[in-house]
Amino acid sequence: MREFFRQARYVVAENPVTGVAFALFLVFVVVALFGPALAPHSPLASNTAEALHPPDAQHWFGTDQLGRDVFSRIVVATRLDLGIAAGAVALAFVFGTGMGLAAGFFGGWADRIIGRLTDTIMAFPLFVLAMGIVAAMGNTVTNIIYATAIINLPLYARLARAEANIRRDAGYVEAARLAGNSEIRIVVAHILPNIMPLMVVQASLTLGYAILNAAGLSFIGLGVRPPTAEWGIMVAEGASSIVSGEWWEALFPGLALMLAVFCFNLLGDGLRDVIDPRNRT
Amino acid sequence: MTSLLTVEDLSIEFRTRSGTVRAIEHAGFQVHPGETLAMVGESGSGKSVTCLAIMGILDAAGRVTSGRIAFRGRDLLHEREACLREIRGRDIAMIFQNPRTALNPIRTAGQQIADVLIQHAGLTPGAARQRAVEMLGQVRIPDPERRARAYPFELSGGMCQRVMIAMALSCQPALLIADEPTTGLDVTTQAVIMELIDEIARTERTATLLITHDLALASEHADRIAVMHAGHVVETAPTQELLVKPRHPYTQSLIAATPGPAAALADLAAIPGSLPDLRREDLPSCRYSERCGRHDKACDAPLSPRLLADNHSVACRHPL
Amino acid sequence: MWRVLIGRLSTAIPSIAGVIVVTFVLTRALPGDPAVYFAGPTATPQSVEEIRHQLGLDRRWPVQFAYYLDDLAHGDLGNSLSTGQPVLTEILTRLPASAELTLAGLLIAVLIAVPLGVLAAVRPGSWIDHVCRVVSTAGVSLPTFFTGLLLVYVFYFLLGWSPAPLGRLDIFYSAPPMHTGFYLIDSLIAGDLETFRATLSQLILPAFTLGIFALAPLARVTRAAMLAALGSEFVRTARASGLSRWRIVAVYAFRNAILPVVTTLGMVFSYLLGGNILVEKVFAWPGIGSYAIDALIASDYAPVQGFVLAMAALYVTLNLLIDMLYGVLDPRVGISA
């Protein structure tokens, strides 16, 4: 653990941007947790008299077409967007790692079936598949989480499989076998902890992608319905305004999106530099 | 005899994350026209770095901090890059270890030889291709027509090395630098490749700078041997004299550690210790002193090679 | 030669099979009543029953699957509720619009990313290297639909350089006579420079939006691949042989670096085809993406299914082509393998 922190300090010293990204990450988490309490106005309170006002002292990010405060909506939306992404990544992480471990460690028909499954998922352009899944299962936020989880599954499965494969015949695994441990116990107690750092790096790298995916789906009208505040749908609502010059309605949620994704990507890169410096770009 | 290549007082350092590595310090040797000089030493002693410096293709992190590399009188360290490019491949050529990875994997053997010919001999592509096939024949590759169209992955290690030799010798250079040319090849192929190098060097009167960690190989093919240790040239002498009467303790240990045909495993003497960490600020002037049994206070004074006899120089305060 | 081709084709078959099964499961085998989906929100219970029978949804699964396969074999992807037209026909009509957009986006991405990556690798530490690294990291963070809107705001609203984002052609112009379906090419064939220019001006912003999206991974891989190639042993041999700088960078390093870039194209296409949908919505582009979105909103189910199937088939084909391209470029896995 101490080694990890020493490495982490080294990486942050080398690359202060990672430190900034981490600080930003904390800000997002705080806003997600305490969102509604932090918003100055109610995100749902519409007031057509104040529709489409540019940013001012009262409404820092202006108001949208229905007179709602953009800033408050963005703050409140943080919880939803991050929640969707975190949920999707968590699901993909758990199931993907499990599948990959099974395929890589046990081989045989487990490998073949799981391989076929991941190949099939990857045969689709991922966003299209997500669209199809949500369209088929029903237009709800839960299904957005499931769909995003499914399309991220192969990433984790492949990584876990490759790593499990490498470690399958390692010395300590043989030793554990000889000591009488069952195969399952070996996987859980010996292989899993060893690959965990790599999988966590993968998770942070795909969090950003999951946010973009979810926002994209809601941009085209899937999942989130008005008047819910969510960054993607807010950009969609602001699309017609921005074309005629009222930029704030779409710009701020878009910036929030960009910032969040950028932050997670940088964090992922930083984590990767700490854990597996060989793979730096 | 005027020398073809004179390396004088060469020092090279590398900037790395963990400090500056003083890889080569005050190294000096000469290669005369037509002769074979072997540079022998452990891995990490700086043999390859010296060659890369001669060719002017050191890694970007490396810097030559002092010295002179005179080729036919001109100091290569102060030549323009355009001149150096002409010299490389045409006057001085180099072949490397691991021939299969040293060749372009997606270019045929014939094309790679032709590339050199087009660059230096000004041949047209057609003429170059033909000459490439001739060269392949010269390095005794069977069925050169067909092999010229082959990719490195289709050739054995030994054949890849022959292709590299063909590339290197295509413009009849005055000096061939061979960096561990047979390491990684099986013993039979080793012998055959070395024989080939010897023969071509003889007929074309090419001087050879042979880099190897194998003292036995050096003794069979070199006229003179220069022994390197931790970035220093510690002894230079004609081969027989070096083997029979080594003057530097390290050379003696190397000879003792080299298996002869009749030696038993128990007879091999390992050299105690290992190469010093070249990033240290406090490196002693004789880098062998910490491994040497004859070390005393006098060894800490600055050291430079002394000429003991006509052709025999050694860098030691207490030569044997 | 043919053997290799057939070998490659056969690797695509499991993918196509998987795609067909997945689309079948998505549309027929999920909990809920697919018949209601297909009949639409305005259907009477009677028409729902009709649809159910028509689609064979009252049969057992294996029979349904057989019907499904049979329909596919006949190119029957169902009919759109809103337009009443066969889905396949509508998709085929709109395909060239999407294809033109996607290819234009890819072209822009390649033309910018590859030189950027190469130059960044050849001059490490320079400003170009920094630009490349920023582009690679920041580029993947940009939401496509947002960049599109931003570009429209800047170039249409603020600067007035671009026309309104209202589709492929301004209403004053009519489409050129159909040869390829690509307006750019067709207008050139017809010698109609006015239409060519009009098409181009409508195409630039959406293509750029897509291109920016694909830029980041391409630049990153190109730079990494070039760095690896330039640091490789065979480049060291080339330098030791005194080959000219041009030959070393362009012939020795670049041709080797291209290989991992081609491999990445598959992933890039996945992004592009997905991003296509979003860009079509922002720019009102009449391609298959907006077709699917409109159908989704109208709860018109058959087009969505047909769209997913078509996109997947397209993607599998593209991957196959990329595979073959790689085989041509790399003699180690190519014809002689």
Task: Give a written overview of the molecule.
The complex is a heterotrimer of chains A (281), B (320) and C (337). Chain A has 10 helices and no strands. With 281 residues, chain A is mainly alpha-helical. In chain A, helix 3 runs antiparallel to helix 4. The longest helix of chain A has 37 residues, at 70-106. The two termini of chain A are 25 Å apart. Chain B has one domain: Rossmann fold (3-Layer(aba) Sandwich). Chain B has helices at residues 47-55, 81-87, 99-102, 109-120, 125-138, 144-147, 157-169, 187-204, 215-221, 239-244, 249-257, and strands at residues 5-16, 19-31, 36-40, 62-71, 74-75, 92-95, 175-179, 207-212, 224-229, 232-238, 306-307, 313-314. In chain B, strand 9 (224-229) and strand 10 (232-238) form a beta hairpin. In chain B, helix 4 (109-120) packs across helix 5 (125-138), helix 5 (125-138) crosses helix 7 (157-169) and helix 7 packs parallel to helix 8 (187-204). Chain C has helices at 2-28, 34-39, 45-54, 61-73, 87-122, 127-139, 144-158, 183-189, 193-230, 233-240, 245-282, 288-297, 301-329. In chain C, helix 5 runs antiparallel to helix 11 (245-282), helix 8 packs across helix 9 (193-230) and helix 9 packs across helix 11 (245-282). Chain C is globular and about 80 Å long. Chains in contact: A-C, B-C. Chains A and C meet through helix 4, helix 5, helix 8, helix 9 and helix 10 of A and helix 1, helix 6, helix 7, helix 9 and helix 11 of C.
Based on CA inertia axes, which overall geometry of chain A fits? elongated
Q: How is the biggest beta sheet of chain C arranged?
A: none
- For the termini of chain C, the CA-CA separation is 11 Å
Mean pLDDT across all residues of chain A, rounded?
Answer: 84
What structural category do the secondary elements of chain A indicate? mainly alpha
Radius of gyration of chain C: 24 Å
| Low-pLDDT runs of chain C | none
The helix content of chain C, as a percent range, equals: over 70%
Unreliable parts of chain A: none
Structural class of chain C: mainly alpha
Oligomer: heterotrimer
| Overall pLDDT metric of chain C | 85
Number of helices of chain C: 13
What's the helical proportion of residues of chain A? over 70%
User: How many E strands of chain C?
Assistant: 0
> Radius of gyration of chain A over alpha carbons?
22 Å
Strand content of chain C: under 5%
Kindly state the number of beta strands of chain A: 0
Main interface: chain pair and counts = A-C, 47 and 58 residues
Write down the secondary-structure element order of chain A. HHHHHHHHHH
Shape of chain C: globular
